[in-house]
Amino acid sequence: MYVYDSYDHHIVRERVAQFRRQTERYLAGDLTDEEFLPLRLQNGLYIQRVAPMLRIAVPYGLLSSRQLRKLAHITREYDKGYAHFTTRQNLQLNWPQLEDVPDILAELAEVEMHAIQTSGNCIRNVTSDQFAGVAPDEITDPRPYCEIIRQWSTFHPEFAFLPRKFKIAVCGSAQDRAAILVHDIGLQLVVNDAGETGFRVYVGGGLGRTPVIGSLIREFLPEQHLLTYLEAILRTYNLLGRRDNKFKARIKILVKATGPEEFAKKVEAEWAHVRDGETTLTQTEIERAKSFFTLPQYQADAAADLTALKAEHKAFARWIERNVKDHKRPGYKAVILSLKPTGVAPGDVTDTQLEAIADIADQYSFGEVRATHEQNVVLADVREADLFEVWQKAKTHGFATPNIGTLTDMICCPGGDFCSLANAKSIPIAEAIQRRFEDMDYLYDLGDLTLNISGCMNACGHHHVGHIGILGVDKKGEEFYQVQLGGSASNDASLGTVLGPSFGRDDVPDVIQKILDVYVERRLQEELFLDTYRRIGVQPFKERIYAKAS
Amino acid sequence: MPRLVKNEAIVECHRQFLPKDSDLTAVQNRTDVVPLSLWVSQTEALSALGVDGVWVDSDETLDALTDTLSQLALLAIHFPAFVDGRGFSLGRLARERHQFSGELRAFGYVLQDQAHFLRRCGFDAMDFRQGTDLNSAIESLADFTEHYQASVDQPRPLFRRRT
């Protein structure tokens, strides 16, 4: 992974000192609440319902075991001993004290971490594929480009006060696991006929209260022009994006109002001025970034025949089937540690679990892990011969629930239990669903299925792009839940269709059951939920759920 | 007299800023700073009076100034709210695209916490919000002494300078 040099350390240390002074000025009354707000948000600090919340940046999801141990220490010393992985591959602390935040940042800086631009109307943490560098379908490793974008966007002087937040995702494989079509900018790495690396550029995707699928504005952007082109998009948005209404301020609204073709023309016109300038990437810089993401010391004797072990341990076989993914290197696999056991808020980990992940990573996966936008953790380079031991350790620490990609591997925001924006709770809904659908054979029979829950229309739980999406709404002070069907965040991205009137909390598991019943009755052979839905439409589901009792 | 920070020093400003809808009769002194629209419609008359200061609001562009910017000693960019970041782009455009070499001033609602960003975007003068400790603001200019990106103050990005 990327290693800081003296420049990176210098910049992060200056940030810690700056934020310490800002916090002192705020506590002394020299900065108003209104003024401190965007300053603290740009450092990931929210004032929440019950306590401040600090969002720590995990650039494109990569973490070392050293960083994990530091995070464990921080949750123990400054918080209540647990943390929460978010849908942007970041980590949140729910109970820090405002006065402690500068010290937390100083501790993070020791391990090359920070909370820079994890919130606020600026360029946020760039996200990517959790299987970057190991996926069999990879075209180009996205991580070096993510790091280049991270550095360029960190304290960009022109784009720190944008109309609204701005999210960039990079995908380097054939299958999109980074949800690039629902980002402000989505970058798909491609290699053209001449063998040159570049990007297909999408803009204006996003979720929130106006969900939109991104528009293609450039078929091929040669890699050396990455930053100048991003600068042209951002400048166009900064100058023309709406600032009169925060709900219409995202770039998606500008792209829709302008029209994608006209928007592309504006970007190209701006780019004509800045392309080939000093910000054009040099081959040296691209090679430097790539030099941090080289292959680890793979071993020749990593392969193993697991047939007998799988026959003997049914639970191990299930875990292999759901939580272990193919690797581009023969003999190696990628393992997903599930952070979705029943009874735990999706994405939550304790301090001792963070340390356990660090130990497992050190012993079996070159000391590194990746956070996923589905709120799990990936060990990217595990020898097949070690899988049984890794499974046993994962089981000991509560990470072996074999539910990856199934109904209970839910994406879920913190919801009304923690978040002051939420209209409704989301964690109890997730738990009720997990308790109802605990039968693994049933879950496996249902196959790949995503269920995403957001506690409000800001859509942090990505409900629009779940095969089944649940949205918490407030009706006269009471919490209700709207159900949507047919969303997808992958290459075939689509937004869910609202089923109909919303339901009370206690009814949600029954509603999900009815949806699944319709699917099981109507599916053809091995057809997946999303495909059945796309074939038969929303009507049969509506009829079942809103049928009058007879 | 409003006091502002210019090139790391505290200076007093004696110029009057004329409101947006002002016409030629409002101009009293050659040091008056006129709104963009007045400058564009009355460039010759104002030049004859010796006016050399123009202010631009955050929702305006510099396009109409292309031919006359070099006559100005002062270009002031208005920040109606400190979270309105359009002025940062306008500053860079003034310096990098239009090669403006006079005083580039940020005024309106500007926070000392934005000082280093403003300087990076080409501003050499800043009229901070009332009550700002200007000595503290001068220190904030140096909140960051190294930067990743190219900008007005450092035209070469870090990746071209890294050793």
TrEMBL record, chain A:
Residue intervals of the Nitrite/sulphite reductase 4Fe-4S domain: 119-273, 408-545
Record EC number: 1.8.1.2
InterPro entries hit by this protein: NIR_SIR_4Fe-4S, NiRdtase/SiRdtase_haem-b_fer, Nit/Sulf_reduc_fer-like_dom_sf, NO2/SO3_Rdtase_4Fe4S_dom, NO2/SO3_Rdtase_4Fe4S_sf
Keywords: 4Fe-4S, Heme, Iron, Iron-sulfur, Metal-binding, Oxidoreductase
Domain of life according to the entry: Bacteria
Pfam families: NIR_SIR, NIR_SIR_ferr
Residue span(s) of domain Nitrite/Sulfite reductase ferredoxin-like: 53-111, 344-394
Gene3D superfamilies per record: 3.90.480.20, Sulfite Reductase Hemoprotein, domain 1 (3.30.413.10)
GO molecular function, one term: sulfite reductase (NADPH) activity
Entry protein name: Sulfite reductase (NADPH) hemoprotein beta-component
Originating species: Simiduia aestuariiviva
Lineage of the species this protein comes from: Bacteria, Pseudomonadati, Pseudomonadota, Gammaproteobacteria, Cellvibrionales
TrEMBL record, chain B:
Pfam families: DUF934 (PF06073)
InterPro entries: UCP030820
Protein name, UniProt field: Uncharacterized protein (DUF934 family)
